[in-house]
Design brief:
Length: 522
């Protein structure tokens, strides 16, 4: 489950792992006169100082405990970007239960799967409908997952408040939360992270990214994603005593209003958003973006051409980020030479990160490219309750599945992936899961989903369909509506379909995804 004792000992002795807990982040700032009255979190409608946030967290934590939620219980969150999200996360931390980070875009398939694997006891999500009925979805999950007892309305957290009390202190080396993987299997695997391992990555990220109390970090990606959460993201900004601004939508029309209003200094974007921001700025804007100092781009490969345009267009320093919720995060440095910033995905943030490149059989290769494997003080060694730990080498190193090359200075260039996971502009799609859902349609005899390249998203999905009746193949519209209705997140609906009579095969008679991908480029 955890790190071998010699490694753990080394991390402890060298102060890599400390005795800090997630709850300390807010609690310590709230009790420090230099920070108590400073604004900690802001959204379009309201803001809270550290002292106010701490007070509200204390009341909600007590209320959750009063409901019967106990330390180590799992609490599933599905909350749009807002101050309420931060309150809920820290309240769960305070009463020592474990947040499970669902995304607002998740639908019944994902949420039921996650609630079941986590044995979640409660769901915190909005009861009011804002474009989508989150409460109805939570009800569905409760009906299908026995352990779920409480549905908590994130729009009205006050109704759950109780008198603050002492919940005791978590052991920093115990689990703090469960993050979701963008894995290649159907239901996302759960990633168990400890206070000590994750907070090391947050503190180290702050050093590398120059985050301090003057940082105003804007969250435009879904806040529960690992990138805006910790690289350095929300936790980094709060840890440093800075301010977190949460945007309800990532587009310039919404987000730039907040940049201007709150004098935002830093933001994390995925490449398609970075392109929209860049193109909009190149076209000219009346918004005052002069406070913005750093734009991070990560989650998917940023094309070099786009990378070169970001700094001049937005008047910022670009930082590329190659990270994963399982651990390892790489950054380009803020003072790195231009070609390194625009042409690489950075280098490991920690001297304690260990990397190796291997071939398809796991044999080390000296010259890349190769499959990246890694171990380190903030990289997990197993998934939560993992029955088939194929993502880990025999010695516990994490197999990222990414094909990378190393430059002379130790920077990584991401060349692709080996598995069937499609990276749709930073949102990960499991081909297997989408296939399963399409296959349930009566007009489909067989289906294979592959990535096709896309100018904006990097990759998008194409479903090769063998119809039940060749004379009457299903249309894209029909399949998308069908998959949507089956309860899958919108970003996983197929972008294109191709009707085919039979799949090409490999030499050993297996369906060749590679040949199907090649068909798309010819
Ligand atoms: C190419 N591929 C990338 C990049 C991630 C910071 C930033 C991102 C994530 C994240 C994160 C990439 N170029 N710059 O957790 O803390 C692909 C790789 C990787 C996978 C992980 C963070 N940045 N990727 O994206 O868990 O394939 O984390 O293995 O969602 O995204 O996805 P995820």
């Amino acid at each position: 489950m955890s790190w071998p004792s010699e490694l753990a000992q080394k991390y402890r002795q060298n102060g890599v792992w400390s005795d800090e807990t997630f709850d300390d982040i807010v609690a310590r700032k709230a009790s420090d006169p230099a920070f108590a009255d400073k604004v900690a979190v802001v959204d379009a409608d309201r803001s809270l100082t550290y002292a106010e946030l701490d007070d509200r967290v204390g009341r909600l934590a007590a209320g959750l405990a009063e409901l019967g939620i106990a330390p180590d219980d799992r609490v599933l969150l599905q909350i749009p970007n807002s101050v309420a999200y931060i309150e809920a996360v820290f309240a769960v931390f305070r009463m020592r239960a474990l947040p499970v980070f669902g995304l607002p875009a998740h639908r019944a398939t994902e949420l039921v799967g996650v609630a079941r694997s986590a044995d979640a006891v409660a769901i915190i999500s909005p009861a009011s409908t804002r474009g989508f009925d989150y409460r109805a979805l939570a009800e569905t999950v409760r009906e299908q997952v026995d352990t779920v007892r409480h549905l908590i309305d994130s729009d009205d957290l006050e109704q759950f408040w109780a008198e603050p009390r002492d919940h005791g202190r978590a052991d920093p080396e115990d689990l703090g939360f469960l993050q979701l993987s963008g894995g290649s299997t159907g239901v996302p695997k759960l990633i168990p992270r400890t206070h000590a391992d994750y907070l090391y990555s947050v503190r180290r990220s702050n050093e590398v990214c120059g985050v301090d109390q003057d940082t105003v970090y804007l969250v435009v990606l879904p806040a529960a994603h690992n990138f805006p959460m910790s690289s350095p993201g929300i936790l980094g900004a709060l840890h440093a005593g800075g301010t977190v601004v949460l945007a309800a939508a990532p587009l310039p029309s919404v987000a730039w209003e907040l940049v201007q209003r709150d004098r935002v200094t830093m933001v994390g974007l995925v490449p398609p958003l970075a392109r929209i921001w860049t193109e909009t700025a190149e076209g000219g804007t009346d918004f005052d973006l002069s406070s913005l100092a750093t734009v991070q781009v990560g989650g998917a490969r940023c094309p070099d051409e786009l990378a070169r345009r970001i700094s001049p267009a937005l008047g910022v320093t670009l930082q590329q980020v190659f990270g994963m919720a399982e651990g390892l995060v790489c950054y380009t440095g803020l003072d790195d030479p231009e070609d390194e910033v625009t042409g690489t995905q950075g280098r490991p943030m920690s001297e304690w990160d260990e990397l190796r490149l291997v071939d398809e059989d796991g044999v080390p290769v000296t010259d890349g490219p190769g499959f990246l494997e890694t171990q380190g003080p903030y990289t997990i060694r197993t998934y939560w309750k993992d029955a088939s730990p194929s993502s880990f080498a025999d010695d516990g190193w994490y197999r990222t599945g990414d094909v990378v090359e190393l430059t002379g200075r130790g920077n990584l260039i991401v060349r692709g992936r080996g598995t069937d996971r499609i990276n749709r502009g930073g949102e990960k799609v499991s081909a297997e899961q989408v296939e399963e859902h399409i296959l349930a349609h009566p007009a489909v005899r067989d289906v294979i989903v592959v990535a096709s390249s896309d100018q904006y998203l990097g990759e998008r999905t194409c479903a090769y369909v063998i119809p039940a009746d060749l004379a009457e193949p299903p249309t894209l519209g029909v399949l998308r509506a069908f998959v949507r209705a089956s309860g899958l997140a919108e970003w996983k609906l197929p972008d294109a379909i191709k009707v085919i009579e039979a799949f090409p095969e490999t030499g050993v008679g297996k369906v060749s995804r590679k040949k199907l991908r090649e068909l798309l480029t010819h």
